Structures are given as C-alpha cells and as structure tokens.
Amino acid sequence: MQSRVLAILIAVVLAVVATAAMIVYVNGADRRAISGQEPVVVLVAKDNIKAGMSGEDAQNAELIESETIPKKNLVPGAARAASQLQGKFAAVDIVKGEQLLLRRWVGFEDVAGRRLLPIPEDHQAVSIGVDLVRQVAGFVTPGDKVSLLVTMPHGGKDRTDFLLQNVQVLAVGATALTSTSSQGGGGRVSQGKGSQSLTAVTLAIQGRWVKNVVHAAEEGSIYLTLMPPNAAEAGKSPGVNDDNVIPDSQGQ
Fold first, then answer.
1. Over the stretch 56-87, which tens digit does the pLDDT of each residue have?
2. Does residue 224 have a pLDDT over 90?
3. Which residues pair with 198 in a beta bridge?
4. What would you measure as the largest C-alpha separation in the chain, in angstroms?
5. Tell me: the pLDDT tens digits for 161-174?
6. C-alpha 50: how far from its chain's center?
7. E-only strand ranges, 103-189
C-alpha cells in the first residue's frame, strides 16, 4: 500500500515538473519568435480619441499607450514616440486599438481650417487681441491655463481685478494686428499701447462669461497670467486701484 502511494506521489511530482517545463519552453519560444521578428514599439489608442483632441490632451487623459509588436505588423507612418504628437491634433476620430498614424495628426492651422477647434462642452471660443507683454512675453501656448486680469474704470478710478481664472488656451494666432488698425470699432480695443502689435489668443470661455470677456476686451485692458498645472485659484479680493496698490505697513 505504501509503495502504491509513493508511486502516485512520484507521478504527480513528475507531472508538475513536466507542466512547468512545458510552460517555460512555450514562453521562451514566444519570446524567441517575437525576437526573430524584430519587435518594435508603437503608439496605439488605448481608447477612442475624438477628432480635434491634441496629442498632449490624449496622453494626459491616458488614451494613448505604447505597445511592442513584431516589426512586420507595424503600419508604415505609425508614431513610435510621444514626442511625435507634440503640437499635433487628431484630424479624424481614432478608434480603440488603432496604431496612431502620423498622417492622421495635423498642426493647429489645419485643425482650425477644418472646424476641429477642440472647444470643451458648455464653452465658447473667444479670441482677444493681446500684445507680447500681456501674454507673458509670448510664453502662452495652446493647451496652457491662464487667468485674465482686467483694468477698467470703477467709481471714478481705474480698478484691476481677476476676471476669470484657470481658462484653457485653445490657440495663439500667428497673425498680428497693429494697435492703430484694431481701433476701428470704438472703445479701448487696443490692448497694446503705442505701436505694440497684437496677437489673437483664443480662449475656451464658459457661455455665461462670454459677454463679460468681450466687454472687458472692448472697454478695458486685459493681462494674461500663466498658471502652473493644477493651480488653485486666487482668493476673492476687492481689486486694486490707486488707493490700495501699495500695501500698508502691515502687508495688507
């Protein structure tokens, strides 16, 4: 009886060892097969990507992932690195699992021409003319978050205060207008005094604030501040005018 039990145990052990050896062999064969086919890394859509979405936004939303595939399965023109999608926008809807073809990602000018400006839901795209100094010396770029400060007459004096904060920049136009030619509509349209040139900065504004931004651009002077990622909004304040622009001795 004991010899029979021992024989069964030995048979079980041998079966386990054989199974493990088979698994190791199969895995090794798979690796050798892929290695023999020159594995390459390609970017694929982890989930559906809507037309008009920027490469940066798609990556931040974790809609793009890297995948190692045999070279023979690589589609010609597929993106191999995230840097290839910098400053690019999806020209068409891209489906989950699809290799990201560079010909389907275009520059902003092409996106705008095809009416693919990526406007968030419940927002409207509004462009304002801002000179170089008032757009952080030109460091404001599409995808950034900015705050808008406006200086306007209030109670007989000019007052400066935050108009909106953490506003998404959709575009920074390449065409500049001189302050002289931009004043045909009346009001203080010219954001740059003297002979400063203006650049159109297009912002995603919530619908309820569109009129405020347009009025501020027409009648006031707007400054943009560049926000760091995940920045908290500044606290509420009464604004600043000639009377309180310089803090008192207590730093208030």
1. 889 999 999 999 999 888 888 899 998 999 88
2. yes
3. 131, 177
4. 109
5. 999 999 998 888 74
6. 14
7. 105-106, 123-131, 145-154, 157-178
DSSP assignment of 66-119: EEEEEGGGPPTTB--SGGGGTT-EESS-B-TT-B-BGGGEE-HHHHHHTT---P
Residue 47 to residue 41: CA distance in whole angstroms: 18
The identity of residue 217, as a single letter, is A
CA dist., res. 69 & res. 209, Å (int): 48
3-state secondary structure of 215: helix
- In tens, the pLDDT along 131-147 reads 888 888 888 888 889 99
CA 177 to chain CA centroid, Å, is 27
Tokens 């005018």 sit at which residue?
241
In the block, tokens 């989930």 appear at 47
How far, in Å, are 22, 52, 91, 125 from residue 58 at the CA level?
A: 41, 10, 13, 20
End-to-end CA gap in the chain:
94
Please tell me the predicted confidence (pLDDT) of residue 133.
Answer: 87
Across residues 88-107, what is the average pLDDT? Answer: 87
Domains of the chain plus CATH, in order, are 39-113 (3.90.1210.10), 123-227 (no CATH)
Cβ neighbors of 76 (< 8 A, separation 6 or more) are none
148's tokens: 């808008």
Instruction: Please say whether the beta carbons of 162 and 238 come within 8 A.
Output: no
Torsion angles phi and psi, residue 137, rounded to 5: 55, 30
